[in-house]
Amino acid sequence: MKAFTIERYGNQDCVRMSDLPEPQLRDDDVLVQIHAAGVNPLDAKIRAGEFRQVLPYRLPLILGNEMAGIVTRVGSRVQRFKPGDEVYARPAKDRIGTFAEFIAVSEADLAIKPKTLVMEEAASLPLVGLTVWQALIEKAHLKRGEKVLIHAGSGGVGTFAIQLAKHLGAFVATTTGTANVEWVKELGADIVIDYRKDDFDKILRDYDVVVNSLDGKTLEKSLSALKPGGRLISISGPPDPDFAKEIGLPWYMGLIMRLLSYRIRQKAKRRGVSYSFLFMRASGTQLQEITSLVDSGAIRPVVDRSFPFESTKEAMAYVETGRAKGKVVVKLR
Hints:
The protein has 333 residues and is an alpha/beta fold. The chain has helices at 41-48, 119-123, 126-139, 156-167, 181-187, 216-222, 241-246, 251-260, 262-270, 284-295, 312-320, and strands spanning 2-6, 15-19, 29-39, 61-62, 67-74, 86-89, 102-106, 110-112, 147-150, 171-176, 191-194, 207-212, 226-234, 274-277, 303-308, 327-331. The protein has 2 domains: 2-124 and 301-331, Medium-chain alcohol dehydrogenases, catalytic domain (Quinone Oxidoreductase, Chain A, domain 1, Alpha-Beta Complex), CATH 3.90.180; 128-277, NAD(P)-binding Rossmann-like Domain (Rossmann fold, 3-Layer(aba) Sandwich).
């Protein structure tokens, strides 16, 4: 099969198309012929080796973290899927590789794709959908009537987060550039801060939750928008000690993460708010919930551009510019 791989960590020049054998199936695996794959900033971070200390991948490595496709074979213990099913998934963090013609995915990480979506749309959802679900529902326990600030509202995570927060009954503020202000309002944002004109930390107060996907400066400024008891959740770091426990890292890595997050945790504590880092995990069960929301019309995917599979490197480069409105996908079939 064709796949985009890296043999060493580095820049885009390290990515190349390779010919590889089809994946081997475990008893609880499902073999999926990939029709479309989502492209994310996470792909470039993995390619650059940013997670090599916590996710020690074996090289060569197939890149890609989400996909939609059709089941071709199932392992002997698989019960929920059969050949011909249209499915989508974010594979487990140690079994990535969706920039390929086939992938073996654990049954537990897979879900039937939304019936209302074509493959490219479905492939755009698993990574951001699970990230937002785990941030707003699992970590923040967002309730009806609460106020949430979602940074980068026009990005992949932001477009999904605005819609899910509104579905949950929250009041939503977001930040974006001038060209996207009206567009994110159409997604459901109640207040939109144009970061080119205004500073959100001088305008927003008494929020219950902030979801940050931007840099450390934005993270620290977000503290001023929270009321006492508020929750600051960051998907861009720094990782905290709880994250080290969640993924079973050795004690010394927990110590390193305690040091990395010390500054923001102390600042949060002084303001009477909590800080937590989220590295999303795969979950077919949560994807089923997302499927229901999409098919009911509560959430719609936002796809900026679709690239042919042969142009996967160009798709990754486009995502790295930070200009994508919503998600970017590559189409295999």
